[in-house]
Amino acid sequence: MNIADLVHSIGETIGATATVKSVYGEPVTLGQRVVLPVAKIRYAFGGGGGGREGESPKGGGGGGGGRVLAQPCGLVEVTPEGARFVYFQEPAILAAAAAAGFLLGLLVAYSRRPHTDAESV
Length: 121
Known about the structure:
Number of helices: 3
Order of helices and strands: HHEEEEH
Helix content: 25-40%
Strand content: 35-45%
Strand order of the largest sheet: 1-2-3-4
Number of domains: 1
Structural class: alpha+beta
Radius of gyration: 27 Å
């Protein structure tokens, strides 16, 4: 198997498993409302190989691998009135970002205030 075939095979295998369906399952229908799950799917793959000439014309090898990350990120709600996207936010990340912004603001405010000679002693 040449390197192009190996990389193609790995990509197909990983791509077949990285689906929204594998994260959530099927869309849900409730009356006239349909909820479609949305996921962020990321995958990476690679492969390599080589051979040597000289002592052993059959010497050589190859290999490859990959990684899949499937993460829920929201849903689409479809009703007779229309469709809307609901984003799943991470409260811990938002709280950490707000705290970091607050602390940075305090640091900037402190560094800009005028210092007197009494404070430097």
